[in-house]
Design goal:
Elements (H helix, E strand, L loop, with lengths): L6 H18 L1 H15 L6 H14 L3 H13 L4 H33 L9
Helix pairs in contact: 1-2, 1-4, 3-4, 3-5, 4-5
């Protein structure tokens, strides 16, 4: 099964649209950016685990943009396919059938961002 969403293109488009909000709503966007920076700051939970949590929530909330951004971050942080799949299993458990459909999309998004992780013949 392959996703019809190109997550790299989607995140580029979202980033472009968000830049308009940075201009028109600078205080709101600065606040949002500060929230994200604080949430992802080093602490008791490492950055990769935080991104796995964020991906799971994005799947359960059925947010394609969240899937795109967090799979890119996970690829950058060196997440393995097994780690991503295990986090997606928890998202499906918590989100039921609709989360399963978005978990399948997240598999495609991670494979797009980290093609070296895709098993041969997959």
């Amino acid at each position: 099964m392959s996703s019809s969403v190109n997550y790299k293109a989607l995140t580029r488009e979202i980033s472009s649209n968000v830049s308009q909000l940075r201009t028109s709503q600078p205080e709101v966007m600065q606040g949002f950016n500060a929230l994200g920076k604080a949430a992802l700051a080093p602490g008791a939970i490492d950055a990769k685990t935080k991104e796995l949590i964020a991906l799971g929530i994005g799947v359960a909330a059925r947010c394609d943009g969240c899937i795109g951004f967090h799979t890119q971050a996970l690829a950058r942080l060196g997440a393995t396919r097994a780690e991503v799949h295990e986090a997606l299993a928890i998202a499906v458990y918590m989100g039921g059938g609709p989360a399963l459909m978005y978990a399948a999309n997240a598999v495609a998004a991670f494979d797009e961002c980290a093609p070296e992780q895709v098993p041969a013949g997959a």
